[in-house]
Design a protein that fits this description.
The chain has 291 residues and is an all-alpha fold. It has one domain. It has 14 helices and two strands, in the order ββαααααααααααααα. A two-stranded antiparallel sheet has the order 1-2. A hairpin with a 2-residue loop joins strand 1 and strand 2. Helix 4 packs antiparallel against helix 6 and helix 4 packs across helix 7. The protein is globular. The N terminus and C terminus are likely disordered. Zinc ion (ZN) binds next to helix 4 and helix 5.
Length: 291
Protein backbone atom coordinates (compact mmCIF):
# COMPACT_ATOMS: atom_id res chain seq x y z
CA UNK A 1 0.00 0.00 0.00
CA UNK A 2 1.47 3.34 -1.05
CA UNK A 3 0.57 7.00 -1.07
CA UNK A 4 1.64 9.92 -3.26
CA UNK A 5 3.21 13.25 -2.35
CA UNK A 6 4.92 15.76 -4.66
CA UNK A 7 4.93 13.09 -7.33
CA UNK A 8 7.06 10.80 -5.16
CA UNK A 9 5.87 7.36 -4.17
CA UNK A 10 5.89 7.01 -0.39
CA UNK A 11 5.86 3.59 1.17
CA UNK A 12 3.25 3.82 3.91
CA UNK A 13 5.15 1.59 6.38
CA UNK A 14 7.73 4.40 6.85
CA UNK A 15 5.05 6.74 8.07
CA UNK A 16 3.59 4.08 10.34
CA UNK A 17 6.99 3.21 11.77
CA UNK A 18 7.70 6.86 12.46
CA UNK A 19 4.38 7.51 14.11
CA UNK A 20 4.49 4.40 16.29
CA UNK A 21 8.17 4.78 17.27
CA UNK A 22 7.80 8.48 18.02
CA UNK A 23 4.76 8.23 20.26
CA UNK A 24 6.05 5.10 21.96
CA UNK A 25 9.36 6.79 22.81
CA UNK A 26 7.55 10.02 23.71
CA UNK A 27 5.39 8.23 26.31
CA UNK A 28 8.13 5.90 27.55
CA UNK A 29 10.70 8.67 28.00
CA UNK A 30 8.24 11.04 29.66
CA UNK A 31 7.18 8.27 32.04
CA UNK A 32 10.76 7.18 32.73
CA UNK A 33 11.98 10.71 33.48
CA UNK A 34 8.83 11.46 35.52
CA UNK A 35 9.50 8.41 37.70
CA UNK A 36 13.19 9.32 38.03
CA UNK A 37 12.49 12.89 39.17
CA UNK A 38 9.66 11.75 41.46
CA UNK A 39 11.98 9.49 43.41
CA UNK A 40 15.18 11.57 43.16
CA UNK A 41 14.11 15.22 42.65
CA UNK A 42 16.94 17.70 42.23
CA UNK A 43 14.92 20.50 43.81
CA UNK A 44 11.43 21.07 45.22
CA UNK A 45 8.91 22.50 42.77
CA UNK A 46 7.09 25.71 43.68
CA UNK A 47 3.86 24.54 41.98
CA UNK A 48 2.23 21.07 42.32
CA UNK A 49 3.27 18.67 39.56
CA UNK A 50 -0.25 17.87 38.34
CA UNK A 51 -1.00 21.56 37.78
CA UNK A 52 2.24 22.01 35.81
CA UNK A 53 1.67 18.93 33.67
CA UNK A 54 -1.95 19.90 32.98
CA UNK A 55 -1.08 23.42 31.79
CA UNK A 56 2.02 22.43 29.83
CA UNK A 57 0.18 19.44 28.32
CA UNK A 58 -2.63 21.73 27.15
CA UNK A 59 -0.12 24.09 25.53
CA UNK A 60 1.55 21.13 23.83
CA UNK A 61 -1.77 19.95 22.39
CA UNK A 62 -2.53 23.44 21.05
CA UNK A 63 0.92 23.50 19.42
CA UNK A 64 0.42 20.04 17.92
CA UNK A 65 -2.97 20.91 16.40
CA UNK A 66 -1.60 24.14 14.87
CA UNK A 67 1.60 22.51 13.60
CA UNK A 68 -0.12 19.47 12.08
CA UNK A 69 -2.85 21.65 10.59
CA UNK A 70 -0.28 23.97 9.03
CA UNK A 71 2.37 21.61 7.70
CA UNK A 72 0.45 18.32 7.38
CA UNK A 73 3.76 16.47 7.05
CA UNK A 74 6.35 15.02 9.41
CA UNK A 75 10.16 15.19 9.08
CA UNK A 76 10.30 11.59 7.86
CA UNK A 77 7.54 12.26 5.32
CA UNK A 78 9.56 15.27 4.18
CA UNK A 79 12.73 13.17 3.88
CA UNK A 80 10.93 10.55 1.78
CA UNK A 81 9.58 13.30 -0.48
CA UNK A 82 13.04 14.77 -1.13
CA UNK A 83 14.95 11.48 -1.30
CA UNK A 84 15.25 11.74 -5.07
CA UNK A 85 16.17 15.44 -5.14
CA UNK A 86 18.70 16.38 -7.81
CA UNK A 87 20.12 19.09 -5.59
CA UNK A 88 20.38 17.21 -2.29
CA UNK A 89 23.79 17.02 -0.61
CA UNK A 90 23.27 13.87 1.42
CA UNK A 91 21.49 11.65 -1.09
CA UNK A 92 24.57 11.19 -3.29
CA UNK A 93 27.11 8.39 -2.72
CA UNK A 94 30.11 10.72 -2.16
CA UNK A 95 30.30 9.24 1.32
CA UNK A 96 29.36 5.72 2.49
CA UNK A 97 25.72 5.42 3.60
CA UNK A 98 26.64 5.09 7.30
CA UNK A 99 28.74 8.24 7.07
CA UNK A 100 25.88 10.18 5.48
CA UNK A 101 23.55 8.95 8.24
CA UNK A 102 25.94 10.13 10.96
CA UNK A 103 26.36 13.45 9.16
CA UNK A 104 22.56 13.82 8.98
CA UNK A 105 22.15 13.46 12.74
CA UNK A 106 24.94 16.00 13.28
CA UNK A 107 23.61 18.48 10.74
CA UNK A 108 20.05 18.35 12.08
CA UNK A 109 21.34 18.83 15.61
CA UNK A 110 23.40 21.80 14.43
CA UNK A 111 20.23 23.26 12.88
CA UNK A 112 18.57 23.03 16.32
CA UNK A 113 21.58 24.64 18.03
CA UNK A 114 21.56 27.46 15.47
CA UNK A 115 17.84 28.14 15.72
CA UNK A 116 18.04 28.06 19.54
CA UNK A 117 20.90 30.54 19.40
CA UNK A 118 18.80 32.78 17.15
CA UNK A 119 16.01 32.75 19.76
CA UNK A 120 18.48 34.18 22.25
CA UNK A 121 19.91 36.75 19.83
CA UNK A 122 17.00 38.28 17.89
CA UNK A 123 14.66 40.47 20.01
CA UNK A 124 11.32 39.20 18.61
CA UNK A 125 12.44 35.57 18.67
CA UNK A 126 13.58 36.00 22.27
CA UNK A 127 10.14 37.24 23.24
CA UNK A 128 8.63 34.10 21.70
CA UNK A 129 11.22 31.87 23.40
CA UNK A 130 10.61 33.55 26.77
CA UNK A 131 7.57 31.31 27.16
CA UNK A 132 9.93 28.35 27.52
CA UNK A 133 12.20 30.21 29.94
CA UNK A 134 9.50 31.77 32.11
CA UNK A 135 8.64 28.42 33.68
CA UNK A 136 9.04 29.10 37.40
CA UNK A 137 10.36 25.54 37.83
CA UNK A 138 12.36 23.08 35.75
CA UNK A 139 11.10 19.54 35.20
CA UNK A 140 10.22 17.05 32.45
CA UNK A 141 7.12 19.07 31.48
CA UNK A 142 9.25 22.16 30.78
CA UNK A 143 10.28 20.37 27.57
CA UNK A 144 6.83 20.91 26.02
CA UNK A 145 6.36 24.46 27.32
CA UNK A 146 6.91 26.06 23.93
CA UNK A 147 4.89 28.79 22.19
CA UNK A 148 3.10 27.76 18.95
CA UNK A 149 5.07 30.37 16.98
CA UNK A 150 8.30 28.72 18.10
CA UNK A 151 7.00 25.27 17.12
CA UNK A 152 6.04 26.58 13.65
CA UNK A 153 9.42 28.30 13.14
CA UNK A 154 11.38 25.29 14.40
CA UNK A 155 9.50 22.93 12.11
CA UNK A 156 10.01 25.29 9.18
CA UNK A 157 13.78 25.45 9.74
CA UNK A 158 13.94 21.68 10.18
CA UNK A 159 11.95 21.03 7.01
CA UNK A 160 14.10 23.49 5.06
CA UNK A 161 17.25 21.65 6.17
CA UNK A 162 15.76 18.31 5.11
CA UNK A 163 14.76 19.78 1.73
CA UNK A 164 18.25 21.22 1.17
CA UNK A 165 20.28 18.20 2.31
CA UNK A 166 17.88 15.41 1.23
CA UNK A 167 19.29 13.15 3.96
CA UNK A 168 18.71 9.38 4.31
CA UNK A 169 15.20 8.74 5.66
CA UNK A 170 16.38 6.36 8.36
CA UNK A 171 18.81 8.99 9.68
CA UNK A 172 16.04 11.60 9.88
CA UNK A 173 13.96 9.11 11.87
CA UNK A 174 16.90 8.42 14.24
CA UNK A 175 17.54 12.17 14.70
CA UNK A 176 13.87 12.81 15.41
CA UNK A 177 13.64 10.01 17.97
CA UNK A 178 16.91 10.99 19.64
CA UNK A 179 15.74 14.59 19.92
CA UNK A 180 12.44 13.45 21.45
CA UNK A 181 14.20 11.37 24.10
CA UNK A 182 16.82 14.04 24.73
CA UNK A 183 14.24 16.78 25.13
CA UNK A 184 12.63 15.06 28.14
CA UNK A 185 15.92 13.73 29.54
CA UNK A 186 17.60 17.15 29.32
CA UNK A 187 14.79 18.82 31.27
CA UNK A 188 14.74 16.27 34.10
CA UNK A 189 14.45 17.66 37.61
CA UNK A 190 17.09 15.12 38.57
CA UNK A 191 20.84 14.66 38.37
CA UNK A 192 22.96 11.78 37.18
CA UNK A 193 25.34 10.33 39.76
CA UNK A 194 28.74 12.04 39.76
CA UNK A 195 30.52 9.08 38.17
CA UNK A 196 28.14 9.15 35.17
CA UNK A 197 27.74 12.92 34.72
CA UNK A 198 31.22 13.72 33.39
CA UNK A 199 31.61 10.97 30.75
CA UNK A 200 28.00 11.31 29.61
CA UNK A 201 28.23 15.10 29.36
CA UNK A 202 31.09 14.72 26.90
CA UNK A 203 28.69 12.89 24.55
CA UNK A 204 25.14 14.20 25.19
CA UNK A 205 23.48 17.13 26.92
CA UNK A 206 22.70 16.14 30.52
CA UNK A 207 20.02 17.64 32.81
CA UNK A 208 22.70 19.40 34.92
CA UNK A 209 24.14 20.95 31.77
CA UNK A 210 20.83 22.13 30.31
CA UNK A 211 19.46 23.35 33.67
CA UNK A 212 22.13 26.07 33.64
CA UNK A 213 20.53 27.39 30.44
CA UNK A 214 17.30 27.91 32.44
CA UNK A 215 18.99 30.04 35.11
CA UNK A 216 17.39 33.39 35.89
CA UNK A 217 20.82 34.96 35.26
CA UNK A 218 20.68 36.46 31.78
CA UNK A 219 24.32 35.63 30.96
CA UNK A 220 23.73 31.98 31.80
CA UNK A 221 20.62 31.80 29.60
CA UNK A 222 22.90 32.30 26.63
CA UNK A 223 24.91 29.18 27.52
CA UNK A 224 24.41 25.47 26.87
CA UNK A 225 22.12 25.87 23.88
CA UNK A 226 22.67 22.37 22.45
CA UNK A 227 19.85 19.89 21.88
CA UNK A 228 21.39 16.39 21.66
CA UNK A 229 25.15 16.90 21.52
CA UNK A 230 27.20 19.25 23.74
CA UNK A 231 29.85 19.70 21.05
CA UNK A 232 28.36 22.78 19.37
CA UNK A 233 28.45 24.68 22.66
CA UNK A 234 32.10 23.80 23.10
CA UNK A 235 32.93 24.59 19.47
CA UNK A 236 31.17 27.96 19.46
CA UNK A 237 32.17 28.89 23.03
CA UNK A 238 28.71 28.91 24.58
CA UNK A 239 29.48 26.06 26.98
CA UNK A 240 29.27 26.66 30.73
CA UNK A 241 30.20 23.85 33.11
CA UNK A 242 28.43 25.18 36.21
CA UNK A 243 26.22 28.14 37.19
CA UNK A 244 27.77 30.92 39.29
CA UNK A 245 25.47 30.08 42.23
CA UNK A 246 26.07 26.33 41.90
CA UNK A 247 23.45 23.74 40.90
CA UNK A 248 21.76 23.92 44.31
CA UNK A 249 21.79 27.72 44.55
CA UNK A 250 20.79 28.43 40.96
CA UNK A 251 17.28 29.87 40.52
CA UNK A 252 15.40 28.79 37.37
CA UNK A 253 13.02 30.97 35.37
CA UNK A 254 12.76 34.51 34.12
CA UNK A 255 12.96 37.40 36.56
CA UNK A 256 9.54 38.96 36.95
CA UNK A 257 7.70 35.77 36.01
CA UNK A 258 8.61 33.39 38.81
CA UNK A 259 5.05 32.91 40.00
CA UNK A 260 2.12 30.58 39.42
CA UNK A 261 0.38 33.07 37.11
CA UNK A 262 3.01 32.33 34.47
CA UNK A 263 1.63 28.78 34.28
CA UNK A 264 -1.68 29.98 32.81
CA UNK A 265 -2.28 28.71 29.27
CA UNK A 266 -3.73 32.06 28.17
CA UNK A 267 -0.73 33.82 29.69
CA UNK A 268 1.74 31.58 27.86
CA UNK A 269 -0.01 32.25 24.54
CA UNK A 270 -0.01 36.02 25.13
CA UNK A 271 3.46 36.31 26.65
CA UNK A 272 5.43 37.20 23.44
CA UNK A 273 3.19 40.22 23.02
CA UNK A 274 3.41 41.50 26.60
CA UNK A 275 5.70 44.36 27.71
CA UNK A 276 9.28 43.26 28.32
CA UNK A 277 9.63 41.70 31.80
CA UNK A 278 12.15 42.84 34.33
CA UNK A 279 15.33 40.86 33.74
CA UNK A 280 14.08 39.62 30.39
CA UNK A 281 16.51 41.61 28.26
CA UNK A 282 18.73 39.98 25.70
CA UNK A 283 22.22 39.33 27.03
CA UNK A 284 25.13 41.06 25.40
CA UNK A 285 26.06 38.12 23.21
CA UNK A 286 29.72 39.09 22.79
CA UNK A 287 30.26 39.55 26.52
CA UNK A 288 28.42 36.32 27.38
CA UNK A 289 30.37 34.31 24.81
CA UNK A 290 33.73 35.72 25.90
CA UNK A 291 33.27 34.88 29.58
ZN1 LIG B 1 16.66 28.87 25.42
Amino acid sequence: MESQNRGVTIPVPWIRIESFAYWFLFAATFLGVAIWESFRPKRDLSVPTERRWGRHGTLMMICSVISVGLYRVSPVFMAVSFAGSRFGLLNKPWLPFAGRCALTVLVLDLVKYTTHRAYHSVPFLWRVHQVHHSDPDFDVSTAVRVHPIEVILNQGAYFAAIAIFAPPVIAVLVAELASCVQSFFGHANASLPGWAEKPLRSMIVTPDMHRIHHSEEVGEQYRNLGDIFPWWDRLFRTYLAAPAAGQDGMIPGLKGFQNEASLGVAFMLRQPFLPEPQGGDLPDVRVAAAR
